[in-house]
Amino acid sequence: MEKQLSIKTLDQLSRDVAVPDYDLRKSQCGIVHIGPGAFHRAHQAYYTDLALAYGGNWRIHGVSMRSDTLKKALAPQDNLYSLAVVDNTPSLRVLGAIKTLSTLSEDRDVITAALCSPAIKIISLTVTEKGYCLNNTGSLDVENPDIQHDLANPDLPISAVGLIAQALKAREHSGDADVTIISCDNVTDNGKKLAKAVIDFAYYLSPELAKWIQNNIAFPCTMVDSITPATDDEVKSNVSANLGLKDDWPIQRETFTQWVIEDHFSGPRPPWEKVGVTFTKDVTFFEKAKLRILNGTHSTLAYVGLLFGKETVYDAISTPSIQVLISALLEREIIPSIETDNIETLRQYAADIIARYHNKHIRHMLSQIAWDGSQKLPFRILDTVRDNLHANRDINLLCIPIAAWCLFVSRKAKAGESITDPKATALIERATRHAFDPVAVTNDLLNETTIFAELSANSLFRDHVLAQVKTLSAWSTQDVDETLDPI
Ligand code: CS2
Questions:
Q1: How far out from the chain centre does Cα 320 lie?
Q2: Which of 34, 168, 226, 390 could serve as a FRET partner for 160 with CA atoms 20 to 30 Å apart?
Q3: CB 59 within 8 A of CB 52
Q4: Residue 67: in which H helix or E strand, if any?
Q5: Which residue ranges does the record assign to the Mannitol dehydrogenase C-terminal domain (predicted)?
Q6: Which of 431, 441, 485, 422 is nearest to 133 (CA)?
Q7: Residue 366 CB–ligand 1 contact under 6 Å
Q8: Would strands 278-280 and 258-262 be described as parallel, antiparallel, or unpaired?
Q9: φ, ψ for residue 432 (rounded to 5)?
Q10: Cβ partners under 8 Å of residue 204, min gap 6
Q11: What torsion do the CA atoms of 221, 226, 230, 234 make, to the nearest 10 degrees?
């Protein structure tokens, strides 16, 4: 049988593969990361792997909230895995930053002990938008079943918010405030939102705990960026072939990677600044630019592209009329929504992002980006709509991704297919009760105030979305490929 990647076999790797530059047998954990999915493994774990070369016990204890698949796959590999950079200049590197992997359902005691351990100085997380359990007024969503469970059973939490609150309660008792909580999700003001969720939750447990957290624990905001499609079988077999050893769960990403962190810590941290991480007083600009320009156009490509039979980001952006749409959306409605004194830099930033979409070595599935639309669209598109309405700017093109999302939900419901979204049941039900008529379904979906909030009652917004639904419904796949000027 082919030999597998592990600490023991590291010396048998192909020569051009980079390996950890620190002692894997000695260095200990200083970080607990909740949600060690592909993005974390390609991004924060990569930076931490590089920073470990400067010393310090900064390895990561990864905590999966539900699934034990990653833990099982990486156990025979001593949690080592490869990062394949897939671009014009490909490269391969084995990362060792993750020392331990645990799953909440199997290892609760180990996880609780780690979160409360004085050795752990950073608790970070990538739990996606829905993991923050906030409602559309920005407060903890006490209707959320996981939050209800955790408030009733604060010693047996099943949500990330409940888990962090439990750890901070123990730290309040032991007087150990030497820890920073870092959100790494694509959420506006991610640190502030996480703090709000945890402090609201803590308040239900005890107002003193809420106050202690507020006064002692830092929740810096961050901007994270690197396109990291899910690992498929092709990636697995290519990586294993290039490695010379079997790797059961490598990850892939593009060359570009960026991490900007608000310089606000309540304890020590790895020397991330030595390995390309930017520390700044205020990440608002970086965060807004990235969420609106990259994630906003990504979601537009996903819903418009899927509507017209495209599979990947590359397929969609290579379609002339879709490319025209994206450029116009950026230039007319997204870029003007971001305050800057250097518009040319922002335009260049957007052009660089479009160039990244043209990476033909990466198959980034639109269906993956289309997940969780109810959670993503508010940060990616609706906040921009709000700012434009407020400033009397156009919202016409911004209504295209919203219209395309309504048609996506409607078509999925008609085909009897499910969608990956925490609100899937309610959305499919809204589509079904109007017999999938695009205009009627859209009108009903726009009533979903948990997504659209006050925009549900905004007739200008509604009229634009409905008009775009009619336009999109009239297009054919051939139009998009050949003749259409969508704007
Ligand atoms: C994507 C992001 O899946 C998605 O919704 O838009 O994950 C995107 O690839 C990253 O934010 C890039 O940094």
A1: 28
A2: 226
A3: yes
A4: none
A5: 282-472
A6: 422
A7: no
A8: parallel
A9: -70, -35
A10: 151
A11: -160
Q: Whose CA is nearest to atom 6 of ligand 1?
A: 295
For the CA of 298, the nearest atom of ligand 1: 6
> In whole angstroms, how far apart are CA 257 and each of 44, 153, 276, 277?
10, 39, 9, 9
Strands (E), 263-366: 278-280
**Residue 356, ligand 1, Cβ within 6 A:** no
State in Å: Cα 369 to ligand 1 middle: 7
Residue nearest to atom 9 of ligand 1 (CA): 227
ipTM summary value: 0.99
Is the CA virtual torsion 119, 59, 100, 159 positive or negative?
positive
- DSSP string for 106-143: HHHHHHHHHHH-TT--EEEE--TGGGG-B-TTSSB-TT
How far apart are the C-alpha atoms of 208 and 163, rounded to whole Å?
A: 18
In angstroms, rounded to a whole number, what is the distance separating the alpha carbons of residues 470 and 387?
Answer: 25
Q: Atom 8, ligand 1: which residue's CA is nearest?
A: 227
Among 298, 300, 354, 420, which is best to mutate for testing ligand 1, by the most ligand atoms less than 8 A from CB?
Answer: 298
- Ligand 1 geometric centre to CA of 364 (Å): 10
Q: At 270, which amino acid appears?
A: P
pTM of this structure: 0.96
Which residues are paired to 225 by β-bridges? Answer: 258
Question: Is residue 40 in contact with ligand 1, taking CB distance under 6 Å?
Answer: no
* CA nearest ligand 1 atom 3, residue: 369
Separation of CA 186 and ligand 1 centre (Å): 8
H helix runs in 28-174, sequence order: 38-42, 44-52, 69-74, 104-116, 145-152, 160-174
Nearest CA to ligand 1 atom 13: 225
Measured distance CA(47)–CA(35) in Å, rounded: 16
User: Euclidean distance between the first and final Cα of the chain, in Å?
Assistant: 57
